Amino acid sequence: MTLEDNPLKVTQTFFSRPNETNLITKRHRVYKSHQEPGLRRRRIQQTHSMAQKTALIVYAHQSLGSFNSAVRDVAMEELAAQGYKVLVSDLYAMNFRANATQDDIIGDLKNPELFQYGEETMHAWMDGRLSDDIIAEQRKVEEAELVIFQFPLYWFSVPAIMKGWMDRVLTQGFAFSLEKMYNYGVFKDKKAMLSFTTGATQTMFHPDGINGDINITLWPLQNGTLHFCGFQVLAPQIFWSPAHCPPAVRKMMLDGWRARLKGLLAEKPLTFAPCELFDLSFQGGFKLWPKVKEEQESQPYGITTGHHLGKPLPPDNQITAPPDNHITALPSDQSSASPACRK
Asked: Are 149 and 195 in contact (CB under 8 A)?
């Protein structure tokens, strides 16, 4: 399936986040496991150096005989051979609920007169009142150094059940805040990637192909979800139109995936515009510093796929990490960013 999903609603989070002091004062409350969330995360991170490495595969396909299932199995086998503990969230098998509702919150709402999912789940996370299925998935994310999303591309995005996992599991506070986003995000020490199959051929997703540039298709997921939460985003693994390939080609695809997995954690992540390039204040509109825009005028390409500045897109910005992983630095004479995105 192809066609574009709705854009991610990121900007509204800037206006609804409590300040850091408010967050700190509320986190004394008892967590469901008798540990507050931030403390649990720190303890998990501190023990990773001594514990077995962990990878999480968030998987969305209905059929055991699918190519996606074979891709998942290769990842499980290869990562286990490397000494990883491999966790799998098989969303269809789990009958994971995709719709984000009041059922995700245990106990009373903070504002029953006007239900706002993001605000209510943030408070529920701080108080240890999220539903059991969400807490179970959040614990997997906390434990994992690597998260792989395995799925067939539906309507230019993830299947609804996986979108529901992102909506419900990556709650405010747990996965992001105004103070902790992008390269200063909560999961900045973790890696994540998309691995997916398409119905279309590769040429159909070229800049001159009928579906348009695959880099633009991937920007909302890779920048607006994964990188927004701080993940170091590895280049996606794209299996082009396996349903229309002969068995020998499908086997080559799986062999290539297995080979990549052997060195996956040594790969450099994709490049994104760092927070330091932006005036992170409401007065500045969260826009590029004037000096940065001035310096970019002489560059042949935009900074990223999304920050194109009216220029040609940087080639394959969302599917290939450049060898030097170059990211524009903050001009030396520019004042530092606001507290947001720096904690």
From this structure: yes
Spatial separation of the C-alpha atoms in residues 98 and 96, rounded to whole Å: 6
Q: pLDDT of 225-279, one tens digit each?
A: 999 999 999 999 999 999 999 999 999 999 999 999 999 999 999 999 999 999 9
Give the DSSP H or E segment for 57.
Answer: strand 54-59
SS3 103: helix
Q: What are phi and psi of 290, to 5 degrees?
A: -55, -40
Instruction: Tell me the β-bridge partners of 89.
Output: 58
Distance, CA of 182 to CA of 232 (rounded, Å): 9
CA dihedral sign of residues 119, 122, 127, 133: positive
CB atoms within 10 A of CB 67: 18
What is the rounded distance in angstroms from the CA atom of residue 146 to the CA atom of residue 14?
A: 27
Nearest to 304 by CA among 324, 281, 322, 284: 322
Q: What pLDDT does 113 receive?
A: 93
Both tokens of 15, joined, read 């206006």
* Each residue's pLDDT tens digit, 46-96: 544 457 899 999 999 999 999 999 999 999 999 999 999 999 999 999 999
Other Cβ atoms within 10 Å of 11 Cβ, number: 8
For 221-233, write each residue's pLDDT tens digit: 999 999 999 999 9
Cα-Cα-Cα-Cα dihedral of 298, 299, 301, 302, to 10°? -80
CB atoms within 10 A of CB 271: 22
Is the Cβ–Cβ distance between 236 and 195 less than 8 Å?
A: yes
Dihedrals phi, psi of 2, to nearest 5 degrees: -140, 150
Residue 39 has pLDDT above 80, yes or no: no
CB 4 within 8 A of CB 157: yes
DSSP string, 309-326: TTSPPPTTTTT---TT--
Please answer whether residues 80 and 86 qualify as being in contact, where contact means their C-beta atoms are separated by less than 8 angstroms. Answer: yes
